[in-house]
Design brief:
With 475 residues, the chain is an alpha/beta fold. 53% of the residues lie in helices and 7% in strands. The chain has an 8-stranded mixed β-sheet with strand order 3-2-1-4-5-6-7-8, sandwiched between helices.
């Protein structure tokens, strides 16, 4: 029997779909799952008649693969990945490749890359985005790790990845050790921000404007035909159109508590480590945390009072919907600006030399945050590779300027009427803070020096020269 081109460990839906996708592109696949019943059920069921073979032990898997062996782990992040690596190492030969396709923390991937390389093996940490559908039809793939491994897996990865309209694969080598999983983490952080912003736009339309799901479905359909065109805007319209068995919108029957898998939190923690303000994305993480306090919020709703909604929108609802659209677009720009600022900082910290424009192109198809204006991000970094913040690019600064009045109206009306929009307001506050030539941090530094002798710099002296004042000497 001919040996398989690649092995896949883990036959949950993502693993199964990746196996089907890979086989459909002309590559042979051998699959293994710790619960071996799944192997037989898959190979004799969904994969029957396909060029997908079975292995009922890791030894059998290793023996069924062409050299250099390429084994992709689609298992739960954390300890299971380490356990799988330990079991595989004795079965492999120098130059064989272990690929982690899960949502691993980038620091774990850095550690594992170094460890696996010490065993004369090669390691790839590949961020894979697109969910179950993407795994089957073409995901965005963000590989990093041992650079020498890339030529061996590149043909497979680029074949199975999503393609842009011009046929470009949404896959490319990102950088050494943990770079791929860091980029995927930031992708997920931006995803958190995008989803929260959409939810806040929905809340304003539902609670402030009193709109029905059918009306909102039309709005999102219109929005998806313009600058906001994206996968998330598209599916939001589909969600509003979906009816339950009684003919009522299903979305309104879903319990308002959100889950998370940790990648948004990791992005926020990484931003603190890098000293990069990831305020919008962090607010999106906290919004999920607050949503989980359902019982507390029910109690608080009966105790804590807010303003009454009094404005009549019968004559200018359409104008305010346009304000919401502009506020959403401006805030979305901020979300990406913060995410790419974090990528830029981490690239310098870890020596990854990330190509930020190319990363934007990796997200053009297959992934959850695919959207039309990723091309504008690529153009921005093509014009100025050292661009410090996306908001400074002419295209984005012009959009922000044009949206500013609407953005402020939406945030002000939300605050005055007690509608919680933490991501929209955080985005606007970041914009105002970033454009401020002078912040109030001079007073903050004075306080730090007063109580802790932390010293300060003076605006009228060269940077780096430190001063301390005995603040009580004249009292």
């Amino acid at each position: 029997m001919d040996k398989a081109d690649i092995g896949i460990i883990g036959l949950a839906v993502m693993g199964e779909n990746l196996a089907m996708n890979t086989e459909s592109k002309g590559f042979s696949v051998c699959v293994y799952n710790r619960t071996t019943e799944k192997v037989g059920a898959f190979v004799e069921g969904r994969a029957k008649g396909k060029n997908i073979s079975s292995a009922y032990s890791l030894q059998e898997l290793a023996g069924n693969l062409a050299s250099p062996r390429k084994i992709m782990l689609m298992v739960k992040a954390g300890k299971p990945v380490d356990e799988c690596i330990e079991e595989l190492i004795p079965l492999l030969s120098p130059g064989d490749i272990i690929i982690d396709g899960g949502n691993s923390h980038f620091e774990d991937t850095m550690r594992r890359t170094k460890y696996v390389e010490s065993k004369d093996l090669l390691y790839i940490g590949a961020g894979v985005s697109g969910g179950e559908e993407g795994a089957l039809k073409g995901p965005s793939i963000m590989p990093g790790g041992t650079a020498a491994a890339w030529p061996h897996v590149e043909p497979i990865f680029k074949a199975i990845a999503a393609k842009t309209d011009d046929g470009t694969p949404c896959c490319g080598w990102v950088g050494n050790d943990g770079a791929g999983h860091f980029v995927k983490m930031v992708h997920n952080g931006i995803e958190y921000g995008d989803m929260q912003l959409i939810c806040e736009a929905y809340l304003m339309m539902k609670d402030y404007l009193g709109m029905r799901a059918a009306d909102m479905q039309e709005v999102f359909k219109d929005w998806n035909a313009g600058p906001l065109e994206s996968y998330l805007i598209e599916i939001t319209g589909d969600i509003f159109a979906y009816k339950d068995e009684d003919g009522k919108p299903l979305v309104e029957k879903i319990l308002d508590t959100a889950g998370q898998k940790g990648t948004g939190k990791w992005a926020s923690v990484a931003s603190l480590d890098e000293g990069v303000p990831l305020t919008l994305i962090s607010e999106a993480v906290y919004a999920r945390c607050l949503s989980a306090l359902k019982d507390e919020r029910l109690k608080a709703s009966a105790v804590l009072k807010g303003p009454k909604l009094t404005e009549d929108f019968s004559e200018h609802r359409g104008a305010f919907i346009e304000d919401i659209r502009k506020a959403l677009l401006a805030s979305k720009i901020v979300s990406y600006a913060q995410g790419f600022a974090l990528l830029r900082a981490a690239s310098e910290t870890y020596g990854w030399n990330l190509d930020l424009g190319e990363i934007a192109m990796l997200w053009r198809g297959g992934c959850i945050i695919r959207s039309a204006f990723l091309s504008n991000i690529k153009q921005a970094f093509d014009k100025e590779p050292g661009l410090q913040n996306l908001m400074l690019d002419t295209y984005f600064s012009d959009v922000l300027a044009g949206a500013q009045d609407s953005w402020r109206r939406v945030c002000a009306d939300a605050l005055l009427n007690g509608v919680a929009v933490p991501a929209l307001t955080s985005a606007l506050t970041y914009y105002d803070g970033y454009r401020a030539a002078r912040s109030p941090a001079n007073l903050l530094q004075a306080m730090r020096d007063y109580f802790g002798a932390h010293t300060y710099e003076r605006a009228d002296e060269p940077r780096g020269k430190l001063f301390h004042t005995d603040w009580t000497s004249t009292l």
